[in-house]
Amino acid sequence: MLKHILKFTLMAITVMSVSCDNNKASTSLIGKQHPEIKDGRMTPEVLWSFGRLGGLKISPDGKKALYTVSYYSVAENKSNTEIFVMKIDGSEKKQVTQTSERESSPVWMSDSQHIAFLCPDKKGISQLWIMKADGTGRKQISRHETGINGFVFSPDKKKLLYFTDVKFGKTTADIYPDLSKSSGIIVDDLMYKHWDEWKTTVPHPFIADFNGKKLSGDKDIMKGEPFESPMKPFGGIEQFAWSPDSKIIAYTCRKKTGKEYAVSTNSDIYFYNVENGTTVNKTDGMMGYDKNPVFSPDGKWLLWESMERDGYEADKNRLFVMNVATGEKKDMFAAFDQNVESRECLACKITNLSS
């Protein structure tokens, strides 16, 4: 009997050891690499070994900058993103995260001492976290069932706007309850797919109260609407903006479904009133893409990117400005024959308007 017990114990230890080794391998840290360039040849493998910079943000006090670096592993066919902080002059660079998870979308908190960012929880669901600027004191703030895909704090830091995926339409299991484990997709209308992703969910913007430690009172500001905000496949948090007084959320949406949605590029900028829950279309009658709104620092102006014609994805990208009080709109560069892009560019133009 003792012999069998010892044999079983040894087997269990072996299995546990293998499992731990496998787990360690699956969570290996992908970080900075040191490629060897042979014969002066810049190979694809060397290019993939370089870190990619992103997410540059200047602290509110103007003394520090944070940014991300993404590293890639050809062998594992995956990437990893880490957060770095340095002084504004480029000195004292420090990597403040070093995990096998993906820390992304970092922003400074108003005190210039803390950083908010996204990272998967233990279940692998993207959540909001906050830590000190040196990487210590890391705490999970959200515990959203479907995760958080992007976020922006209100100017008064009392609320958080974030977006996440909500269920769209009926699944095969909904239609045929006896096929609850079926992964088949029933297609009877457009738009049924975005690139390599079946359209089974739509992203919706939510707002939640924030007391500095946790979120509460989460509310879907497009509840019951079968539309996307931000718009897939490329839209992100740049398609939202808070007014300086934290009372209005400007968001981008193409409120169409089916074939009409699939062939149209007619999106609009909507104003959602946080205090009374009402929504107003501020670009009604403008027929092309209207997206990426930004308020002026004084809240009197709104700028956004706009295309003129419906259904023409390669139309000229214009810079429009609107007087928020009167609704009067103007093409800022009507005689300019090039595209206007980037959120930073819009913010720059708004500052000039307000001054």
Structural summary, described in words:
With 355 residues, the chain is α+β, with helices and mostly antiparallel strands. Helix content is 15%, strand content 34%. The strands form six sheets. The protein has a four-stranded antiparallel sheet with strand order 1-2-3-4, with no helix packed on it. A four-stranded antiparallel sheet has the order 5-6-7-8, with no helix packed on it. The longest helix has 25 residues, at 2-26. The termini are far apart.
Cα separation of the termini: 88 Å
Overall pLDDT score: 88
Net shape: globular
Low-confidence stretches: 1-26
Biggest sheet strand line-up: 1-2-3-4
Assembly classification: single chain
Beta-strand proportion:
25-35%
Would you tell me the structural class of the helices and strands?
alpha+beta
| Range of helix content | 10-25%
Helical region count? Answer: 5
The major beta sheet can be summarized as: 4 strands, antiparallel
Give the SSE order as H and E letters. HHEEEEEEEEEEHEEEEEEHEEEEEEH
The count of β-strands is: 22
Radius of gyration: 24 Å
